[in-house]
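Q: Give me the 3D complex with cobalamin.
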Amino acid sequence: MPDTLFGAMLQSIVDGAPDTAAELAQQALANGVDPLEAVNRGFAVGITFAGDQFGCGEMFLPDLLASAEAMKAAIKVLEPEMLKRGSRREALGKIVLGTARGDIHDIGKNLVATILSASGFQIFDLGTSVTPEQFVAKAKEVDADIVGVSALLTTTMAGQKAVIEALDRNGLRPRVKAIIGGAAVTSKWAAEIGADGYSRNAIDALELAKNLMGKGTALA
Ligand code: B12
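A: Here is the predicted complex, encoded as structure tokens.
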């Protein structure tokens, strides 16, 4: 059963059908499917497919927007369960999160925020198109342990570098760690700009953040 459910989830995103996506998310929860698995094996596969179609000119921006809306509708249904499943037992640290200047993609960043928050991190989400100055100001204000910058466009990845430079300029690093992510980000880019870490998905982001706080289960 789950495989057909995951297939239908994928299709609902490609079709840009928020009501169907939300219904399928509800169905998954009712069937005891792990909400993160529903995202990773169903909905996220759909949005990646839609992005590829868009990239090769098979899909246009309004369709991609509809796909993004469907993705958000599904995550809205799944989010409370993700938060409920999180441990939330100890305060792990404070993380300032946002999408880089000029970039409005936030689906992945929001997932990272949900997972980290569910696992006990205190999240200060600055939203999208965040300037380096805004990251620095918030990090100072809340005495952050980690600053996380998401970027989905090759043009806005430079914004991640600018945030790291601003953290350095303001004397916040190395105490404050800088982590980055987003579809186009690679470990090579992370090393090049001197980030303290990067991850390909929200689960790895959690492991990364825990490791940086000295509370991880993995080495690294
Ligand atoms: C959905 C989407 C949109 C939606 C965004 C809706 C929203 N509210 O987010 C809309 C339709 C608005 C959109 C707009 C645009 N988009 Co767009 N979009 C996408 C798409 C299809 C999916 C992104 C997504 O949500 N993925 C699902 C999530 C779950 O994955 P994720 O974002 O990668 O996040 C995970 C990890 O990366 C990681 N992570 C993410 N952030 C962080 C942060 C930290 C700190 C850490 C540790 C980890 C981490 O964890 C996340 C969860 O697992 C991608 C294609 C793709 N394959 O990425 C294109 C894509 C990114 N878009 C693209 C483009 C070109 C655009 C536009 C410029 C189009 C236009 N002509 O206007 C605009 C940009 C506007 C702007 N200024 O930002 C291109 C970028 C090309 C490039 N290399 O630069 C892509 C790759 C599509 C393509 N193939 O051409 N887009």
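A quick observation: Residues 44, 47-48, 50-52, 54-55, 61, 64-65, 68, 102-109, 111-112, 148-150, 152-154, 179-184, 199-202, 205 surround cobalamin (CB under 6 Å).
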